[in-house]
Write a structure and sequence with these properties.
about 400 residues, Rossmann fold, alpha/beta, seven-stranded parallel β-sheet, about 20% strand, binds nicotinamide-adenine-dinucleotide, 14 helices
């Protein structure tokens, strides 16, 4: 297949490109490198030393003899160029990662909120409008998030996208399946909820073939392909805005920094290893809906954990301390999360569990590159509201953390 990977320079995009290229697909990376610019804006860098995208592609060619094509293009603002690109290259599938993906970044200031909405909603809509206009029947696979469901504790498993409901009508009760109601907890999650509506409309109106992967928090760094050469290494974000909870705990343990748990740590989240994430994308590509079918939605996660349990698990393995800090987010202190992921298991996914993969990651990545960490960038300081901003901890290594629990 000829596959366009929008956002192919990112944390999940890059290993996906290598995985698909390794399988023999013709892979085209479309990226505006905005994520690299955001690193510059925030004054942070990936824990792992990342080469330029051109250099990464050159090394892949050297190691495997396979070409990765790179196109510098902003999917959100360069509609005409994107449409022209589609017409010229006629991809069989498009994988869409090209969005601003950090909830804390999306909540930093009004400017970050505006940027996140403009970038994410326009990127998704541009892809859909261009597919209709060009008449290209590519399967669109989008990376959404488990976070669109919100984190309430109703106790029932979260289904894969659709909820069975019974509606009272004058002729009695009628059964229907509706999109599971969203309850986004940040501007970023809100854009992913809007994406769902855009997909629903274009699948029903224009027969576009769309798969939406509601992904859990991705952890880990390496895949079989990124390990083939030191310069193919994946991005690893550890900072308070882009670092995801488990990866942050791993680096905190590696640099002898207390594991920073927000609030009571009673938040339950869904997780997936990066190796499984790329494999799921391969499986979804092989299972495309037909034109006229509704959007296919998968829950792309393999296990759920409570944040404080994760911290305690890592503390037990590494001897790190755990520190409970005020929560910068506006969210429930505690939530349950039960998630269905039967579809990927039925397609043959064999999950990497945390218990088996964890220590390798600490040793291989976090400790190896610990010298690149700026400790001042570790705390999460982006607050969800002004009131919360007044009480968040901006210097966790100061007085407060010296008295860890
Ligand atoms: N990382 C996770 O834990 C996680 C969890 C759930 C869902 N997701 C979703 O998966 C996708 C990829 O996540 P990631 O962690 O790889 O993010 P990332 O920020 O590392 O990668 C996103 C890539 O998209 C590019 N991009 C952004 N806007 C663009 C635009 N307008 N035009 C062209 N390129 C653009 C960026 O430069 C970057 O290379 C995101 O959509 C995210 O919402 C990620």
């Amino acid at each position: 297949m000829r596959i366009a990977v929008l956002g192919g320079d990112g944390f999940v995009g890059w290993p996906t490109c290598l995985h698909l290229s390794d399988l023999g697909h013709e892979v085209h990376i479309i990226d505006n490198l905005s994520r690299r610019w955001i690193d510059a804006e925030l004054g942070v860098q990936s824990l792992t030393p990342m080469d330029s995208i051109q250099e990464r592609c050159r090394i892949w060619m050297e190691v495997t003899g396979r070409k990765l094509h790179f196109h510098l293009l902003n999917v959100a603002t360069e509609y005409e160029r994107f449409r022209g690109w589609l017409t010229e290259h006629q991809p069989d599938a498009i994988i869409h990662f090209a969005e601003q993906r950090a909830a804390p970044y999306s909540m930093k200031t009004d400017r970050h909120k505006v940027y996140t909405v403009n970038n994410n909603v326009s990127a998704t809509h541009n892809v859909l409008a261009a597919l209709v206009e060009t008449g290209i029947d590519a399967h669109l696979v989008h990376l959404g998030t488990m976070g669109v469901y919100g984190y309430s504790s109703i106790g029932a498993p979260i289904p894969e996208g659709y909820l069975d409901v019974e509606i009272d009508t004058p002729n009695g009760k009628k059964e229907q399946q509706i999109l599971y109601p969203t309850r986004p907890g940040s501007v970023y999650h809100m854009t992913k909820s809007l994406d769902q509506i855009l997909f629903q409309f274009y699948a029903q109106n224009d027969g576009l073939r769309i798969t939406d992967l509601h992904q859990g928090i991705v952890w880990g760094t390496h895949t079989d392909q990124t390990k083939r050469h030191v310069q193919l290494i994946n991005r690893f974000d550890y900072d308070g805005d882009y670092g995801t909870v488990l990866n942050r705990f791993l680096i905190q343990a590696a640099i002898d920094y207390p594991l920073t748990v927000h609030g009571t740590g009673g938040q339950t989240r869904a997780f997936i290893h990066i190796r499984d994430s790329v494999r799921c994308i391969e499986l979804a590509l092989g299972d495309a809906p037909k034109a006229g079918e509704r959007v296919r939605i998968f829950n792309q996660m393999t296990e759920t954990h409570r944040v404080r349990d994760l911290a305690q698990m890592i503390a037990a393995q590494t001897g790190a301390e755990v520190a409970f800090l005020p929560n910068p987010r506006k969210e429930a202190d505690e939530n349950e999360l039960i998630v269905k992921n039967d579809q990927f298991l039925a397609l043959g996914l064999e999950p990497t569990t945390l218990a088996e993969g964890l220590l390798d990651e600490i040793v291989d990545v976090a400790k190896k590159y610990a010298h690149r960490i700026d400790r001042k960038r570790v705390p999460a300081v982006s607050a969800w509201t002004r009131d919360i901003a007044a009480r968040i901890e901006t210097d966790p290594e100061g007085k407060r953390l010296r008295s860890v629990s």
